[in-house]
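User: Thanks for the earlier help. One more: TBC1 domain family member 23. Can you show the sequence and predicted structure together?

Assistant: Of course, both are below.
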Amino acid sequence: MSSGIKGKGIGQVDSQQEGAAIYTLLALESALHEGADDHELIGITRGRILPEEHRAEIWYICLGGGNKFSNFAQFDEIFDLQDQSVVRADVKSLVDKLGNEEEDKVSIVCDVESIFTHYCKTRHLKYDTSQLWGDIVLPLLAAKMPRDHIYVCFEEILEKYIPRESGLGGSVYHLLRLILLYHDPELSTFLDSRKITPDLYATSWMRSLFSSVCSLDATMAVWDIYFQERDPFFILFLALVILVNARDQVLEMKSETRDQIITMLSGIPGGLSVDDVSDFCSLARYYIIKTPHTFRKDFTTAIFGSVYMGHGEVCNRVGDLPLSQALCLPVSAEEIIDTCDMLQVAGDDIEQVRFFLVDCRPSDQYNAGHLPNAFHLDSSLMLQHPASFQTAVQGLFMAQRQAVASETPGCGQHLCFIGSGREQEDQYVHMVVASFLQRNSQYVSLAKGGYHAIHDLLVHNISESLADHDSKRCLVCAPDSQSHSSEPADQEDFTITTKPQPSLMNKFSSLSSVFKMRSAEMKEKLVEYITNPNGDGTTVDRHVSAQDRGGGGADGRENDRLEVVKVSQWLKKPDVITSFACHQVKENGYMYKCHLLLTDTLLFVIRESETKSGEGHVTARRTLASIVKITSKKRHPDLITFKYGTTSPDGEVTVSDMDRFLIPKASEATKIIKEQIMKQMDAAKS
């Protein structure tokens, strides 16, 4: 992979570097002879490929071998796992790769089978070939470690460096996707548009620390540096380097199939050579420095750790939001404040993330208190005054450029958006963030807990830490004194309270189940990111999502493609009572041009194609009987929410799904739809 990793070209070693290598070797041998601890050894060798004769000893030390209790000596030598024959076959295949003499193979097979068997028994695990344990043990065997040392290192690698959930949908892949989106949004969006998620190409990377795809020599060189880093998240940034270095090749594959792109990505590490490794790891270290570190605190125990630790949805969440649905990288209030403080103290010679804070709260909230270096961008402008919003965005970029050029303390290239921390208002903040992601803006993050979390952190020094703070108008200090521009709750324009007739209840009971299933599925799906509307025409697949299918629509498991139609033909269908041109606002804040078509019993959503004029996609077929509420907001009367569900015999409404549309003259549209719903209900009664 010499041509793939862009760096300094370490293969060209001059005499000065050779002298430094000799000095390092002498210092290392002296430290080992004197029994230096792991910190001293890493201080000498960090960032370097280890001498072959000392590799096994240093790996063992870096992996905690000298301080870790091992019960491997108590192995009972009973090989009775349920899949013991599979274990033995895998081990024999592994040992054949080493090329040892036949008399040595028997001993090695016994050792490795003992290691796998004992680990499964003590951890109460079922052996699984797909976990690639053989690829993890292979470099340890090649390093010529004693059997008991191999077990300790194998155990430490599995429980510290291999993600606990490394199969399809594992949280580590959602995090890798967010990190890629942060550093290379164009590449991330392209892969999203082709439905290529990291678990489709990076599973073997994660499960074997690249051992299953790289040559043995390259793997051992990577592990030399990897174990000295002592950072389980290092694998994510090595993966990021691979993806970023392959970006041009990937983006040129617009006409290739999805499987061809996945195959190409999966095999990239196979070209890595030993001479590439130092640059490979140096670039990973660079991206680590340039990435907000909140995720480390949030996800270390969720993603990595002992198999004894519990699994479950809590391991895949940020606050109340599933990691798979996170719009972008989250940043804690602590990191925001610490970063600003460190920059003011350390000056410009420190390499780290430099945030440009964007406060997206309403103006009266911003004027009642904000961080001194935060740029104000009222998120409500995006819907109320789109032209003003675009002007404000241009001003934001201009202010950021000027701040960076003038080296203003606490200002940098990394955009961190701050909401109020109040769910009702922050849905508009998410729309703003989504619009920046659609622009392929680099370094986009979102403050966890918004202004509320920042306020709580600074509460003991609030007057000196925040600008223009007014405790009487601040909604954190005085939550009961709602300001006039705070976003009100939904204004309920229309609710169906008529109890459905038994026949109708039976008829639509299955529909209710479909809605509930869809709602559950939505919580587990990736947030749908959309490519730049000026894309290349290969973006049909990006519309295909379980989220986009209506409760009465086709099952997504039967067909991955949405129905493609001629919009003009559908608008003229004889059963269409009327239609409304509008924008659909998705859960992630993205907006799509679409048409609502009303018939006697159905509400169709036709989304306009972004690549083919006149064509569209049927994204939903909603029965009018399933509409239980139609709501709007006082500040945004044209933003209409349709809520779907069921009504029990006693009149209790259960909402299981919803759609949101931005409709010009929405009051007229909702009036017509409400009238048709009532007509249908009257017809059902009769």
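User: Great, one quick takeaway?

Assistant: The radius of gyration is 29 Å.
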